[in-house]
Design goal:
Elements (H helix, E strand, L loop, with lengths): L8 E2 L16 E5 L9 E6 L2 E3 L2 H6 L7 E7 L2 E6 L4 E6 L5 E6 L3 E7 L2 E6 L4 E6 L5 E6 L4 E7 L2 E6 L7 E6 L5 E5 L4 E7 L2 E6 L14 E7 L3 E6 L9 E5 L4 E4 L7 E4 L17 E5 L2 E6 L6 E7 L5 E9 L1 E5 L1
Antiparallel strand pairs: 1-8, 2-3, 2-28, 3-4, 5-6, 6-7, 7-8, 9-10, 10-11, 11-12, 13-14, 14-15, 15-16, 17-18, 18-19, 19-20, 21-22, 22-23, 24-25, 25-26, 26-27
């Protein structure tokens, strides 16, 4: 078990604010908030309802600085707050705070049974928490910082390596926590299951003019013994990809990190060259036949979420908080 330098659990009594269950049928946008100052927030919305800063409204205190990832499981929300070194457990239906745990520089979350898995940028471990109260259950030594997580075929998969390599795809047995590392492209950042097969999008190493870039790529997981193979890559080093999303048949992603346009890809094709939308996306989700395109605008003022059809037609624009990055439906 890896060293665990900082871990605390706190519980906050529920504040009698807001009607019970008011958020049950609302979509929830997670907004990062300004980097280094200010706070993350949750925007709750439906066709005729919009509630900005909904978590703060219900609890009387902010989420913290900077929101990285949120998942829903068993009528609870779990939110990783990177700069505040915090994981929150929150009631999905009321947005009432249930518990908080301190994990240094948490990144992404995954859930299986009563366990919550947390990747981080502080050390080489994935931490395992009890979902009911946030207490530490175990940790898994990964050998390097970890990013995106997903559960597939009863195993936990993790992108290993962040802004620096070595980069690998880690395959983790959920029973024994045995880890096997597979060779992968540079900077694995998101997963998509298409036709019951796991694909991994790698953004490539992007140095923003301070060094040489490496290209993005798409990889397919071939099994425990065979690892992963590259199935698509662009023709030059300037193409990067983030926000892998899928309807189960086709995949969609943003074709340029932090200023991306939506592109469509199908297994068997090479890297897409035509776009469905104009640039401006910070992240991308897919739900119920539509694409949710997160526009952070100037990264300091309120952003928006634009909903598109899979052919690129604009359906809806939703006002959001500062740097929207994800939606729970």
């Amino acid at each position: 078990m890896a060293a665990f330098t900082s871990f605390t659990v706190s519980c906050t009594p529920e504040t009698p604010s807001g009607a019970s269950g008011v958020y049950t049928d609302l979509h929830l946008i997670l907004n990062e908030g300004p980097f280094g100052s200010g706070s993350a927030s949750i925007t709750a919305y439906s066709e005729d309802t919009l509630i900005q800063n909904a978590f703060s409204v219900e609890n009387g205190f902010p989420l913290g600085n900077v929101a990285q990832h949120m998942i829903e499981s068993d009528s609870m929300l779990y939110v990783a707050i990177n700069n505040s070194n915090t994981i929150h457990g929150i009631n999905r239906n009321t947005l009432k705070h249930s518990w908080s745990s301190t994990i240094e520089q948490p990144r992404y979350l995954a859930s299986e049974g009563n366990r919550l898995f947390v990747s981080n940028w502080k050390d080489s471990s994935i931490y395992v928490l009890d979902k009911t109260n946030g207490s530490l259950v175990d940790s898994i030594d990964m050998g390097h910082y970890t990013e995106q997580l997903t559960i597939f075929s009863n195993k936990l998969f993790a992108g290993v390596g962040t802004y620096e390599g070595p980069w690998t795809l880690a395959e983790i047995d959920l029973g024994t926590f045995d880890v096997k590392h597979h060779a992968i492209g540079d900077v694995p950042n998101s997963f998509a299951v298409i036709g019951n097969e796991l694909f991994i999008l790698c953004s490539g190493d992007e140095n923003f003019g301070t060094g040489d870039d490496t290209p993005g790529s798409i990889w397919k997981y071939e099994g425990y013994s065979n690892g992963a193979t590259e199935v698509a890559a662009p023709s030059n080093n300037s193409k990067h990809g983030i926000g892998f999303s899928t309807d189960g048949t086709d995949a969609y992603f943003l074709n340029a990190s932090y200023d991306g346009a939506i592109v469509k890809w199908n297994p068997g094709q090479n890297w897409p060259t035509s776009t469905l939308t104009l640039p401006g996306g910070y992240n991308l989700n897919f739900h119920n036949g539509n694409l949710y395109f997160f526009d952070a605008k100037d990264y300091a003022s309120s952003g928006e979420v634009r909903t598109y059809s899979t052919t690129g037609s604009l359906i809806e624009t939703i006002p959001a908080g500062v740097i929207p990055r994800q939606v729970i439906y």
